[in-house]
TrEMBL record, chain A:
It comes from the Bacteria. Belongs to the ROK (NagC/XylR) family. The keyword Kinase applies. One of its GO terms (molecular function) is kinase activity. This is Sugar kinase. It comes from Actinokineospora fastidiosa. It holds the Pfam family ROK. Gene3D superfamilies: 3.30.420.40, Winged helix-like DNA-binding domain superfamily/Winged helix DNA-binding domain. The lineage of its organism: Bacteria, Bacillati, Actinomycetota, Actinomycetes, Pseudonocardiales. The keyword Kinase applies. Keywords: Kinase, Transferase.
TrEMBL record, chain B:
Pfam families: ABC_tran (PF00005). One of its GO terms (molecular function) is ATP binding. The lineage of its organism: Bacteria, Bacillati, Actinomycetota, Actinomycetes, Pseudonocardiales. Keywords: ATP-binding, Nucleotide-binding. This is ABC transporter ATP-binding protein.
Length: 391, 257
């Protein structure tokens, strides 16, 4: 991630690289003993000591004697990342609401806010102003300075400068989100597609931890996907990979705003789910979740109501598995509220029908366990990616 | 549309000669935030206390999950899954977070409380709400800030697997940043499928989190409307005058010039 293959490295570069690797490890895995750090990073104990001492001096980490002792001898000191040493802003812009949080080193959420987007509040100017104002309030309360920001947007985003080409469900086109937030806040801003960001979160902190090849599929109003390939985010030209919701699965289906017809999204998105559940279109998210939860208690009814929906889900997932050959597919957002037996059945069915799944010994299909904060966590990680080296 | 989780029809309540609530109809739907607004003395808190079983009702019907329910005391309400969070941060100052969350419903045998189990449950609940601002669940409540107290009170509702949470001005005593945090928590409760009732005087807050707005005016429910269908000004009119255009009380037909 931060390492660049170079012909030769000077000692200070090596040191900086090691320091970043150590910080990243503490940030993701949490408090670790010095001994464990030495083993896992494959570094000498004295190197670890020098690095940790340096970090402790600037207040980025703290060392403590571990409470539970393991084995004989002098206990190795536990190194704890200090949340307030590096704080980033994470923003999750959704169709119906914006959620934001200040996240400290180690992934702790230190403060948060959210608001509904209705009518005028959905315009880019309003959203950007609100984000800036809220960030000041939250940062003042904590008495910290944020060093970077990560923003998740449900749309097509240019990775390099955070330009939002199109976020159809928000009715945004051509919004220089990254530049505008950067100019106002004066910190590096990274903007990403929501599903791509959620995939990152699952990869680093969720059920896809340790999987090198995973696909994240989520249903909000729209359906999107993020692909982790060989341990890194697959981005494609300019970073537009992941519009899985616009795979055409039903050529005779409904028209989609994207100009196509019968996109996967029109069969398994929130609108389709509301249709299956006999809820009016545009029901609040909580109402859909409550209805799904009620259905979990009535398996026969769930089966009947969601039969068609799950068939489309299987169909799309078979395509996804065949295309990307992941060891794991994580279902996120609204999909996490689907009855557990249904997800299991969908997973089994995909395993039966997908050639690739059979070849690699069965792709697992799991629901995310991170809940609604998945994208916030991912946005924070996106922000941390750039600044860990400079902490 | 699925059935409302809590449906009240024709509720009446008097304190002696004072008729406080007149034929109030009120519905709470699972997964939605319903804001209950009204001027001082309109009967908001009384309505909440009637639902919570603190005040006995004089007449009217309460249906919970489609079934007629008789709420004779706070314990009945708690059994149905109705939890109330009061504006005065009703927690016991001398007890810690775990003790407060389990107050009156402690786990364990007759002689020995299962402290470890209660502590674990409390910690898990707070974590599920991503409340990480509280250092330890054994912190006495007196040492917490207003926002943290409100968070603990709300987390209690989640811990007890409540279906309906009534919040009586949860942000009245809080600063700006803490208000944001509590409102964020309120929204997340609804997203988990709970029915949430939020009493608030702050219109900006109401419009930010509520899905529906119910307005009380002098003890009468004058309007129950989806937030997206009304403007700020209309709601203020409903609160102060009881009507706004087509909404609210009918105009007196006998009006003479």
């Amino acid at each position: 991630m931060t390492s660049t293959p170079t012909a030769g490295a000077r000692p200070d570069e090596v040191r900086r690289h090691n320091r970043t690797a150590l910080l990243r490890r503490l940030h993701i895995e949490g408090p670790t003993t010095r001994a464990a750090l030495a083993t896992e990073l494959g570094l000498n104990r004295s190197t670890i000591k020098a690095l940790v001492d340096g970090l402790a001096e600037t207040g980025v980490v703290e060392e403590r004697v571990p409470r539970a002792r393991s084995g004989a001898g002098r206990p190795s000191l536990l190194v704890l990342p200090q949340p307030l040493a590096a704080v980033v802003l994470a923003v999750d812009i959704r169709v119906e609401q914006v959620a934001m949080a200040l996240v400290g080193l180690g992934g702790e959420m230190l403060g948060r806010n959210s608001w509904n987007l209705r009518g005028k509040a959905r315009e880019p100017d309003e959203v950007i102003t609100h984000i800036i104002e809220s960030m000041r309030v939250l940062a003042d309360e904590l008495g910290v300075r944020t060093i970077a920001a990560g923003v998740s947007v449900p749309g097509v985003v240019r990775r390099s400068d955070g330009f939002v080409h199109e976020a159809p469900n928000l009715q945004w086109t051509g919004v220089p989100l990254g530049d505008r937030l950067g100019a106002a806040l004066g910190i590096p801003i990274r903007v990403g597609n929501d599903a791509e960001i959620a995939a990152l979160a699952e990869h680093l902190r969720g059920v896809a931890r340790g999987s090198l090849d995973a696909v994240y599929v989520s249903a909000d109003i729209g359906v999107g996907g993020g692909v982790i390939s060989d341990g890194a985010t697959l981005s494609g030209t300019a970073g537009y990979v992941g519009e899985l919701g616009h795979m055409v699965v039903n050529p005779t289906g409904r028209h989609c705003y994207c100009g196509s017809r019968g996109c996967w999204e029109t069969e398994v998105g929130e609108v389709a789910l509301c249709r299956a559940l006999d809820l009016p279109e545009g029901s609040p998210r909580g109402a859909v979740v409550a209805e799904l939860r009620a259905l979990s208690a009535a398996p026969a009814e769930a089966e009947r109501k969601l039969a068609e929906f799950s068939e489309w889900l299987v169909l799309g997932l078979v395509n996804v598995v065949n295309a990307f050959s992941p060891e794991l597919v994580v279902l996120g957002d609204l999909f996490t509220s689907l009855p557990v037996p249904l997800v299991k059945r969908v997973g089994d069915e995909v395993g039966r029908r997908s050639l690739v799944s059979r070849a690699i010994g069965g792709t697992r299909i799991l629901a995310s366990t991170m809940g609604a904060d998945c994208k916030l966590i991912g946005a924070a990680e996106l922000a941390f990616e750039t600044v860990l080296g400079a902490v | 549309m699925s059935e409302p989780i809590l449906e009240i029809t024709g509720l009446n309540k008097s304190f002696g000669p004072v008729h406080v609530l007149h034929d109030v109809d009120f519905t709470v739907r699972a997964g939605e935030v319903t804001a209950l607004v009204g001027d001082n003395g309109a009967g908001k808190s009384t309505l909440v206390k009637c639902i919570a079983g603190i005040h006995p009702i004089d007449g009217g019907e309460v249906r919970f999950n489609g079934q007629v329910a008789h709420i004779h005391g706070p314990r009945d309400a708690a059994e149905l899954g109705i939890e109330v969070v009061y504006q005065d941060l009703a927690l016991a100052d001398n007890l810690d977070i775990v003790q407060n969350m389990f107050l009156g419903r402690e786990r364990g045998g007759a002689w020995l409380l299962d402290e470890a189990d209660m502590e674990r449950a409390a910690r898990e609940t707070l974590a599920s709400l991503s409340v990480r601002t509280v250092k330890s669940v054994r912190t006495p409540v007196s040492a917490l800030s207003g926002g943290q107290r409100q968070t603990v009170a709300i987390a209690k509702a989640v811990l007890w697997d409540s279906k309906v949470v009534l919040l009586d001005e949860p942000t009245a005593a809080l600063g700006v940043a803490q208000t944001r945090q509590v409102l964020d928590l309120v929204r997340r409760l609804a997203e988990q499928g709970l029915g949430v009732v939020l009493i608030s005087h702050n219109m900006a807050d109401v419009f930010e989190v509520a899905d529906r707005i119910a307005t009380l005016y002098l003890g009468r429910m004058v309007a129950e409307v989806p937030t997206r269908d009304v403007t700020h000004a209309q709601v203020v009119e409903l609160i102060t005058a009881g009507r706004s255009g087509e909404l609210g009380l009918a105009r007196p037909e006998t009006a003479t010039v």
